Amino acid sequence: MPQLNPNPWFLIMLASWLTYSLIIQPKLLTFLTTNPPTSKMITPTKPLPWPWPWS
């Protein structure tokens, strides 16, 4: 069965994984987030009762 033969797919997978982890990933991690999280307290709002038309 040809799909069980690891040649040349293993080398292609290894090269692409190393390219991603050594070149692309460090470049992506240097970007700053455009919307950093804040430490603001969120006050929960009390839900209003649902106005059922038949009650």
Question: How would you characterize this protein structure?
Answer:
It is a single-pass membrane protein. The chain has 55 residues and is mainly alpha-helical. Helix content is 38%, strand content 0%. It has one helix and no strands. The protein has one helix spanning 9-29. The longest helix has 21 residues, at 9-29.
| Unreliable parts | none
Work out the helicity level.
Answer: 25-40%
State the helix count: 1
Largest β sheet strand count, sense and barrel closure: none
- The structure class reads mainly alpha
| Terminal CA distance | 69 Å
How many extended strands?
0
What's the SSE pattern? H
Query: Which range does the strand content fall in?
Result: under 5%
Q: What overall form do the CA principal axes indicate?
A: elongated
The radius of gyration over CA amounts to 26 Å
Mean pLDDT over the residues: 80
GO cellular component, one term: mitochondrial membrane
Membrane topology: Single-pass membrane protein
Pfam families: ATP-synt_8 (PF00895)
Keywords: ATP synthesis, CF(0), Hydrogen ion transport, Ion transport, Membrane, Mitochondrion, Transmembrane, Transmembrane helix, Transport
Task: Walk me through the topology.
Elements: H1 9-29
